[in-house]
Amino acid sequence: MRVIRLYGIDCVGKGGSNLPILELKNVTRSYKNGQILVEALKEVSLEIEKGEFVSIIGPSGSGKSTLLNMIGALDTADEGLIRVDGNDLSQKNDLSDFRSKKIGFIFQLHNLIPNLNVLENVTIPMYGNGYNSKQMSARAMKLLKYVKLQDKATRKPTELSGGERQRVAIARALANKPSIVLADEPTGSLDSKNGQMILKRLKELHEKENVTLIMVTHDMNVASMADRTIKVLDGKIQT
C-alpha cells in the first residue's frame, strides 16, 4: 500500500499487491422479521480490487444495504468469510476500531451532528486515532477546502443546503485516510442538481485519488457512473 498526496490530502492509493482489497466468500446473513426468517444474503461471494469504483444496485429489500453493512463491519455474517484490506472480520474483537481506521461512510441523510459546526463534524472520526487537536483541525480544513466548503467551517449543518451537507459528509469520510469509502444512497435525499454535483465529486474523488469507492443505489443512472455494477436480487448477486 502507498499513500499519495493530491490537493494536499493524504489518501490511500493502489499498492503493488494483487490481492483484492475486499473479499467475500459464501457470506450468509439472516434475521427475523416478527416470526418470519428473512434470508438477507445467500452465500454471496465477491471481490473488489484496490482503487475500483463499484456500484451495488437492486430493488428495496434485495439485500444491497445488508451487503454494504457487512463490508463496513456494521453487521456480522452468520456464515462465510469477509476480508477487508487483509483483515478477516470474523477474527476482529473490536469492529468499531476497525471501522474508524479503515472505512469511510457517506450516508443518505449525511448524519452530521447538528449542535457541532462543520469543522467539528469533520474532525470527529479522528479522535482516538493518533491526532492532536491542532492536527485534526488542520486536516479537517484541508478536506473542507477539497470539497470547496472552507468558508463554511464555522457554520452549523442546519445553515447549509442539502448538497453542502453531503459534501461535508464526504470530507468527514476521508478524515482517517480510509482504505474504502462506502456511500449508501448518497444522492437519495437530494434534488437532481445537487445529486449530480455530489456524484461528480465522488467520481473525481475516485479518479484523482484512487479511492476504493463502493456505492449502493437503486437508480441505474447513478450506478452507471461506476466502473462496475453489481446487481443484487433476493439476497444473491446476479451474474
Order of helix and strand elements from N to C terminus: EEEEEHEEHEHHHEHEHEE
What gap, in angstroms, lies between the N and C termini?
Answer: 30 Å
Total discrete domains: 1
Poorly predicted residue ranges: 1-8, 10-17
- Could you state the CATH homologous superfamily? P-loop containing nucleotide triphosphate hydrolases
Explained architecture:
This protein is of the alpha/beta class. It has a single domain, classed as 3-Layer(aba) Sandwich (Rossmann fold), CATH 3.40.50. Helix content is 29%, strand content 30%. The strands form 3 sheets. Strands 8-9-10-5-11-12 form a 6-stranded mixed β-sheet, sandwiched between helices. The protein has a 4-stranded antiparallel β-sheet with strand order 4-3-6-7, covered by helices on one side. Helix 4 packs across helix 5 (162-173) and helix 5 runs parallel beside helix 6. The relative contact order is 0.21. Mean pLDDT is 85; it is low at 1-8 and 10-17.
Jot down its keywords.
alpha/beta; four-stranded antiparallel beta sheet; 30% strand
Concise overview:
With about 240 residues, the chain is α/β, with parallel strands linked by helices.
How are the SSEs placed, and which strands pair?
Blueprint (H helix, E strand, L loop, with lengths): L1 E5 L2 E5 L8 E12 L2 E13 L4 E5 L6 H8 L7 E6 L2 E2 L6 H8 E4 L11 H6 L9 H14 L15 H12 L6 E5 L7 H18 L2 E6 L2 H4 L4 E6 L2 E3 L1
Parallel strand pairs: 5-10, 5-11, 8-9, 9-10
Antiparallel strand pairs: 1-2, 3-4, 3-6, 6-7, 11-12
